Amino acid sequence: AMAALGAYRCIECNGEAAELYxxxxxxxxxxxxxxxxxxPVDKYIEYDPVIILINAVLCKAxxxxxxxxxxxxxxxxxxxxxxLLCEAYxxxxxxxxxxxxxxxxxxxRYAKEWDFYRMFGIASLEQxxxxxxxxxxxxxxxxxxxxxxxxxxxxxxxxxxSTYGKLLLIPAVIWExxxxxxxxxxxxxxxxxxxxxxxxxxxxxxxILPWFAIFxxxxxxxxxxxxxxxMGWDV
Length: 235
Hints:
It is built from eight helices and four strands; from the N terminus they run ββββαααααααα.
């Protein structure tokens, strides 16, 4: 667990740490203590992954710091694609529900397949514009926080990982009931809360600025939606 100073972060105070634990061999490990707050640097290294996931779902800052700074998770790209596929599938289903055409003609089936790809593209552009809005706002409000390319990459990784809530879209539709629209709205709110916590933890900000950035991101995203609607596309 030895590493250069600053390779890890204390999950309690966000202070830098050189190691998470020290291995005394024969299975004897000692968790490192943070020099700033005098608490264990990362208690989650002893926790079961399920417990860590539950804490992340509860949007605990400590769990986010553990995942972002003290683990080598590299699934953000694949997770992003899968979440976009989930969102595209939901939109595609809603589009099919609004269409009463049941003609099994090959041309109709091809058109429906194209609709799915179109929904995936639209969802991708909307999320991209949402992230761009967040980056522009944060760069404008706190330029010292995003000086290096690595800062942008870390924040992008945090935002991509924090969209995991979109995976709940599939079960919400599979177990369809009268409250499905309300469930989809709750999922949207949960994803935004996760995004806010990811920004706050990554840049060590207060609670207000991340929400301001998310608000601007939503404005830009809705601007893209309005543009598509003016072009006559179903979104």
